[in-house]
Design brief:
This protein is of the alpha+beta class. The chain has seven helices and twelve strands. The protein has a nine-stranded antiparallel sheet with strand order 3-4-6-5-10-11-9-8-7, with helices on both faces. It catalyses: alpha-D-galactose 1-phosphate + UDP-alpha-D-glucose = alpha-D-glucose 1-phosphate + UDP-alpha-D-galactose.
Length: about 350
């Protein structure tokens, strides 16, 4: 694969990324991030996500011992927002935006993350994701499940959790993915990401981890240094459509991927991740065969636990750019052990 500068096309977004692998050789004297805190208490009475703690709105969390779902105390979307009314000018357009925001804690302990949870615990998280999608998807066009992990990704709380934003509209990323997948399907009579799964299985250059039902790759068009794309083997539209065995396999592939992430720099690896599936609500009744369920992981770390990739300057004003090839990133991740570094240390002590 070419290691000289070149551009690659992202068929999901319909845009291009500049690949400049030679830039990894440049010295770095810029900003370094503070490594994630390693000594986190298991229970913090001041942490609003812990069991039994009173949150800012006065509500008391139950003494939960598994997952815990609640309405976001400071939601970006509310169900009863008024309509902004007609737009006064083509350049000054506004439209209604309604929805619901929730938070789901993965585990009662604050000092644990998904890669350190058991497969059964991760499976419970997956089942909850599916239930939430079904519930909120009844009357919302889009249900965005996402996890921001680490302070560098804007996470204000170390407790293991994700967010759910359900909206009355199709957000920009979803709308682009819908449009581009539909155009590909109409041209090739096959879902884009089903074809991509087969292509990556054949080439095997960008595979990070795989099992019978799932494939994780650093996508050919990756923007973030160690970005990955999680794909099911079978054509699946949404999380609730997964079979029990596929959910077990997803728990397995999630744990293995996230252990590799943490092992890369031996740190709790920060990222933003989220699931994309076919639209819901009234759009669920439309023809959605062009869709394929998938998850994106966008980690910012580049050179070490303290040096991240910055999307500024050219990236903000012109085009996304990455500093190593997808193939190089995949090889680094693929060759990492799947035993978490913390577990290994415990076994060596």
């Amino acid at each position: 694969m070419c290691e000289h500068q070149h551009v690659r096309y992202n068929p999901l977004k319909g845009d291009w990324v500049l690949v400049s692998a030679h830039r990894m050789k440049r010295p770095w004297s810029g900003q370094e991030e503070k490594p994630p805190e390693e000594n986190i208490p298991r229970h913090d009475p001041k942490n609003p996500l812990c069991p039994g703690v009173t949150r800012a709105n006065g509500k008391v969390n139950p003494d939960y011992d598994s997952t815990f779902l609640f309405d976001n105390d400071f939601p970006a979307l509310q169900p009863d927002a008024p309509d902004p009314g007609p737009s006064e000018h083509p350049l000054l357009q506004a439209a209604s935006a309604r929805g619901k925001c929730q938070v789901m804690c993965f585990h009662p302990w604050t000092d644990i993350t998904l890669p350190l949870m058991s497969l059964a615990e991760i499976r419970t998280v997956i089942d909850n994701w599916a239930e939430i999608t079904t519930d909120l998807g009844t009357n919302h066009r889009w249900v965005q499940l996402f996890e921001n992990k680490g302070a560098v990704m804007g996470c204000s709380n170390p407790h293991p959790h994700c967010q759910v934003w359900a909206s009355s509209f199709l957000p920009n990323e979803a709308a682009a993915a819908d449009k581009n997948q539909k155009e590909y399907f109409n041209k090739h009579q096959s879902p884009m990401l089903v074809d991509y799964y087969k292509l990556e299985k054949e080439k095997r250059e960008r595979i990070v981890v795989e099992n019978e039902d799932w494939l994780v790759v650093v996508p050919y068009w990756a923007v973030w240094p160690y970005e990955t794309l999680v794909l099911p083997r079978r054509h699946v539209l949404r999380l609730p459509d997964l079979t029990s065995s596929e959910r077990d396999a997803l728990a397995d592939i999630t744990k293995r991927l996230l252990c590799k992430y943490d092992n890369l720099f031996e740190v709790s690896f920060p990222y933003s991740m989220g699931w994309h599936g076919a639209p819901t609500g009234d759009l669920a009744e439309a023809e959605n065969s062009h869709w394929q369920l998938h998850a994106h992981y966008y980690p910012p770390l580049l050179r070490s636990a303290t040096v991240r990739k910055f999307m500024v300057g050219f990236e903000m004003l012109a085009q996304a750019q990455r500093d190593l090839t997808a193939e190089q990133a995949a090889e680094k991740l693929r060759n990492l052990p799947e035993l978490h570094y913390k577990i290994k240390r415990q076994q060596e002590d």
